[in-house]
Write a structure and sequence with these properties.
- The chain is of the alpha/beta class and about 210 residues long.
- The chain has two domains: about 1-30 and about 115-200, P-loop containing nucleotide triphosphate hydrolases (Rossmann fold, 3-Layer(aba) Sandwich), CATH 3.40.50; about 40-115, no CATH class.
- About 50% of the residues lie in helices and about 15% in strands.
- The protein has helices at about 20-30, 40-45, 50-60, 75-80, 85-110, 145-155, 160-170, 170-175, 190-200, and strands at about 10-15, 35, 115-120, 135-140, 180-185.
- The protein has a five-stranded parallel sheet, with helices on both faces.
- Helix 2 packs across helix 5 (about 85-110).
- The protein is globular and about 50 Å long.
Length: about 210
């Protein structure tokens, strides 16, 4: 079905435990959209046979491969640990491959004309320069105490681990400064959904 409305490209970002995935699940159920999670795309572009795979193996050696000949995430992480220069080189291979994949999918969706919204989710969208690509950057916010409880309850993370991850991510001020729309997911999820519905009231709703 051809849509008359110009498709909107939206980036969704936020700190760990803010609830980005849950917000996107709601959007995916009720709107004509495509949704891509950058972490999942990064896994896809590293599969054997891709340019990204070849470059990573050339950089780190074949000992990062598992028995099936695919990149072993744990083995790669072990090799990168404590090696900031190597991490930079790995990111310089993966991030452009992810961006290329997403822009190709965006172009395909635009040509088909069957979706109204195209979402990309990642904690590092702002740092990776997606602000210049998307039509709008959305920030999913939740109070730190709420995020800590979620991460402790759902993932079993220790307080120290949560602090370490949070300290490595953008500050609240930076997230807000670089975003066009803020979803407050500190309270009930019903209220979060109402914020999304108000923002997307001009777009097609699906039960």
């Amino acid at each position: 079905m051809k849509q008359n409305r110009e498709m909107k490209f939206i980036g969704i970002t936020g700190g760990i435990g803010a609830g980005k995935s849950k917000a996107l699940e709601f959007i995916g159920r009720h709107y004509l959209c495509e949704i891509y999670l950058a972490d999942e795309v990064a896994h896809q572009v590293k599969r054997s046979g891709t340019e990204c795979f070849q470059a990573l193996v050339e950089l780190m050696g074949r000992d990062i491969l598992d028995a099936c000949g695919e990149i072993d995430k744990g083995a790669m992480a072990d090799k990168i640990f404590g090696e900031p220069d190597l991490l930079r080189k790995v990111n310089n291979i993966i991030h452009p491959a992810v961006r290329k994949f997403l822009l190709e999918k965006y172009a395909q969706a635009k040509r088909r004309g069957d979706v109204e919204l195209f979402f990309v989710e990642a904690a590092l969208l702002i740092e990776c320069g997606y602000g210049s690509l998307v039509d709008e950057m959305w920030y999913v916010h939740a109070d730190e105490s709420v995020r800590r409880k979620r991460l402790s309850d759902s993932r079993g993370y220790s307080g120290d681990k949560i602090s370490h991850i949070m300290e490595s991510q953008l500050s609240e001020e930076e997230f807000r400064k670089n975003s066009d729309f803020i979803i407050d997911n500190s309270g009930s999820f019903e209220e979060t959904c109402r914020q999304i519905e108000r923002k997307l009231e001009a777009f097609t709703w699906q039960e």
